[in-house]
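Replying to the earlier thread about multi-chain prediction with a worked example.

Input:
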Amino acid sequence: MTDEAIAPPLAGVIAVEISRGVAASHAGRLLSTLGAETVLVEPPAGHPLRREPPLLPPAHEASALFAFLAAGKKSVTCDLTTQAGRAALSALLAEADVLVHDLSPAERVTLDLDQQTLRVRYPRLIDVSVLPFGATGPKADWQAEEINLIHASGEGFLLPNGLAAELFPERPPLKVYGHFAEYQGGVVAALGALSALVGSAQGGAESVDVSIQDATLAVGAFALQRLGDGSLEHRRTRSFKYGGVLECADGYVELLTLEERQWRGLIELMGRPDWMLDPALSDALERSRRGAEINCAIRTWAREQRTADIVARAQALGVPMAKYASPAEVLSGPHERARDLFQPVEIPGAGCLPVLSAPFHVDGAALFLRAGPPRLGEHQYLLSAKRQREQPAVVAEVS
Amino acid sequence: MKPLAGVRIADFTLHAAGPFCTHVLSQLGAECIKIESAARPDIFRKPHPVYGRMGPASFDQVASNKLSVRINLKDAKGSALAKKLVGVSDLVCESFRPRVMERLGLGYAALAALKPSVVMVSVSSSGQSGPDSHFAGYAPLFGAWGALGYLTGYEDGPPVEMRHVMDHSIGMNAAMAAVAAVYRLRQTGRGGHIDVSAREVACSLVGEALLFAAAGGEPARIGNDHLRMAPHGVFRTREEDRWLTIAIRTDDEWRRLVKLIDAPHLLSDPRFETAPGRHTHRRVLHGEIEHWTMTREAGEAERRLQAACIAAHVSCNMEDIAHDRHLRERGTVVDVEDMSGNKRAALKAPIRFSKSEVGMTRGTPRLGEDEDYVFGELLGLSREDREVLIDQQVIY
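Result:
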């Protein structure tokens, strides 16, 4: 660290968020953690995710999901069904750089927040719509939750693979834990907002349309590439020939050897058993053909091992191996601590708890999580105060 | 006009996560110059027997839309040439193990000394700092380290491997952070170093579960269940291996579902009267739903449920995706030509702007395809200078 405090990348940016779902909330959170002031506009009854499980023990009052997604944001309440509420929102938008929302196209028209109206009233405001299937196209008004979206984007059909698929071949395909697809939508929406901000210097403000389905499909691009190569991927056939999820005496590890030197390291790790020294197995294709036999031996060996021991030895030998870490293990991990991945913030109704900042460092350090989630309407004064911006704002043309 | 027009990237990334970051940025308008060498070509240029590919790929999504030059970075003159390229670039992206760029003379400190406004994006398995920063890893390991793998799975089964979506999630986060740094660069002239940790990206995808655990909760594998919603799951249909996903959020949706599947006895069953009751008895309930889905084709059931404003979707395979009308109309799935001139489906970057354009304008580059432009026009090397560097295997 230098003596001079370096301002985070989005210092001076003001974002307004009107959200119900995880994707738009995550976008607002990413902008906030990168240094923007994100103002969450909540209905008088509060954001719906404030009541969404899991609730934090022991009081079970505060939602872990909301606390994670709203950490660092400011909260105002606006009843957008009333003229006064819409006028208050209008004052916020007049000073904002970005609006992130998950309003349907019909709701936008009702609230005077459609593209055309926004451009006229707030000429420098970038608006970012984050909807399950996007704001345009035949499915624009379709209903979807996480489980629908991860299957609409192809990854759901491909899970589980490896050991779970082997153990339960007849079961339905499996979603990724939690809100995987919605988080992808959030990251892409933040990327869209920032790209439009950069681009606005040349082309002015514009509207951004993000679909959670598109975003999740984008991170699944490899499966579509495989289709072009002539392979329709399936969860039961895309497993690694050997390695993968291994059960040990005290938990599970992941093993993946793609390169020759990693296979040779694995031979050392396993104590040079005779079967591995078979000259035929020095050929990668032969190993691939005999994958089931190799895996049987690796699994038998692994069941006798302790995870911490073999992972440390594997990494020292250059064998890619990791423990399937539980949340508690991640929280107490020396590596995560050294990188300040989790930072203590005050969560109303739950006390001071460590919350994940962001999955990257900027300027040599973790991004600072400036606060926990706001109380409902905690920053109501923002609706009446005239902002002091760091940079002069272009005067909005209010019609 | 694309939003990142005018941004130039010196792209040292290899494999999947890093190249996906720069591929997305290139679709948003950045000019991306991919740096490889014949001695160390990227993985798509080589056979990949693990995937049954016995020769180079004819199309690689994450390499597409990039320019290609050869530089042998292990040669001091190659390192010097790379620095010249950095000198005319705004962004430097790399995905080597930590400290490799330093060894090549191309670490952030060295480049920032050369060009203070440089923005560097490093993508690695565990980040540039911390006791595990030297660890080797691939996508499934990142998921394992970050608790995402531990939490994903049937409730009575083992953890589940994350595959390419993990790599690409890392790349998308890196692209997002990179544009934030470009924004600061444009506003203040200040560069900076973005250090993306793959395992932390996995953590960020289960951030709420990690917080729940920090408070003493014990998040666990729950298969296709939801913590609140029921019915909620993946249901069999009359078609083999053709699945339907359904999520019921409210009492109103529940009543509409019961009406649609013509099962009035469920409404009078006291177990299913309230949302918590339906959640408690979800196994029985899911059996009842499957009685109906088993008599239907997945697509037909999906359309009927959506017509009743119920969240439902077929579990799509990639054939479905490649031909999906919605995705085609949004321009999400587009047709491109591979190196042999064959047409295939590919993905446009997943952002639609009201004014700006986005997308691919060229396919997968051949190794060194753009050296006339990059070495000749951008760096001003004469034909003779380049011939010398080629003879010395610096351009190689």
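Residues 14-221+332-383 of chain A form a domain with the Rossmann fold fold (CATH 3.40.50.10540).

Feel free to reuse this layout for your own posts.
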